[in-house]
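Q: Entry one of two.
A:
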Amino acid sequence: MSSNTTADAAIPSTGPRSGTITSIVLGGEHYSAELVDAVRAATVAAALAAGGWFGRGDKNAADAAAVAAMRGELLPAPFAGYVVIGEGEKDEAPMLANGEELGSGQGPACDIAVDPLDGTRLVQEGLPGSVCVIALAPRGTLFDPRDVFYMDKLISSAPARGVLNLRATPSENVRRLAEVLGKPVTEITVAVLDKPRHASLVAELLGFGAQVVLAGEGDVSAAIDAATPGGRIDLAMGIGGTPEGVLTACAIRALGGFMEGRLAPQSDDQLALAVAAGHDLDRVLTLDDLVASDRVLFASTPVTARS
């Protein structure tokens, strides 16, 4: 399997709906076909389970269904997995918690990052854009953002490497990217999560002339769009989830794109936890810091309504 593929999984005609569901798989050449299929199947199972709650107004039920389905597929998978980025810490979930061991114990020893349902509110409201995501890397290579739930991120495609810098202003980064892409600033499209904390960021970008796409949720999908050359998004920036940031780093690594991050606690309590955990909150994290291996496997499956 190539490092950048899509795969259609057949949905049994005896199940909730017939047809196919399309997954994205990146980095599949680094692992056995059996493990790649198992990881993809886990994202498909989570997406189908969450789809049963699509538009039904209960994001917690959708998330719980996705978690249980994903874990059920990963437990017998042919690897020795250790959850570094899981559900347990921020969401207080009992399954797929940080530190949980998954897999048969046979096969490669891997760090695991999961987001069984990225975009819970989208599923709750029956809107598109939610995905179920898993990333693997060799044991000890994924960044562990212990006790910090939010990260400031800057993400783009390969031409941005060596050009963009998280310490620069948003306007300066847009200017630099426009120059390297050979496009006017007015044709640079920036994805930003639609959150109150980003009001000043959006105002600066619009004032500078860039186009802004506001994402209600789902910063993993927006980041992958930004790292894909020729896509509809040129740049993703702003504060989103740290777990999603590490997952995203695996995808960006496989795509050959650019990413930097910086931990960004959003409350006094979070700040105290981050300091107690020994994190350097001024440090800009590079892609090598976030995932210290090229041997990444990333799988993502979108959630749609079941009928």
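Q: Entry two of two.
A:
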Amino acid sequence: MTETIKDRAKASGPNRTRGPRSPGSATGKPKRPSPNANRTALARIKRDRMLLLLALPGMAVVAIFHYFPLLGNVIAFQNFQPFLGISQSEWVGLDNFDVIFNGDPRFLNALANTLIITLIQVLFVFPLPLALALLLNSVLSERVKRGVQSVLYLPHFLSWVIVVALFQQVLGNAGMLNTFFREHDMATFSIIGVPELFKLLITSQVIWKDTGWGTIIFLAALSRVDMNLYEAAAMDGAGAWRRTWHITLPAVRSVFILLLILRLGDALTVGFEQIVLQQGAVGKAASEVLDTYVYNNGIVGGNWGTSAAVGLVKGVVGVVLVLGANKLAHVFGERGVYSR
């Protein structure tokens, strides 16, 4: 009996044979890295060489037309003369930024118009694709939905020249509606060429042209919602509005925030081509924005350095807005443009 107890004590002591330790324990052997972790960058490039070759033309286009021209921003610190070039133009430091720091009236007018148009479009234009996508998503007939989508997408593919011409032909003083009113002895109205209505006019043009196209991303997000959620909510007595509030809107919230962040990056860009085509009819006081200010001062007026300075500040402000809005999205638990 005594020997048996001693044998058990030895077996339970520190010299007993231990089983294999778990790889994650503090005293066990470290876990061996997977073979994929040991692959060098060269091996990964060799593995994905076909994908990289396919992406090479697009990367070249982005580099040549988007990143390489950024080097030209140095003329914002020069008295740039095209016939002298960048290398021989005189360096003037921050003198070109005086229009911003000292509050040039023409610049302040362009900035005010830009901010007003941006505020109008963010509040009234940006949410419209989501509202339209919700309406299309509620259509039960797929054939009707596709037909409506095709009609709504079409204006996006028209150039601003055609869109402006269409609005002039319909709403102009000699347009279709005023001609109809005159023929029936009715009062006419003036929208085209009226400075007070210019911001309303360009906002309506943006809505007509791009709202339908903007529904694509929201419809794609809505297509991923499990229909069983709607059925379960309906069985629990939830109405259409409650199902939209608790199921549909949370499903598109991350997409909405992502698009809003990207829109804030273009907050100071409100459509150069659309505005410059109609600027002559209403004057610069009502229509001048930062993009047209850069064009009129740089290309038309020859003040290359000042225009480059305004454009540079506009780009920096856009980057700051994107980073700030993305950080705010992280605070509220959203991923944003990029994750932390």
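A: Comment on entry two: The chain has 18 helices and two strands. The two ends are 66 Å apart (CA to CA).
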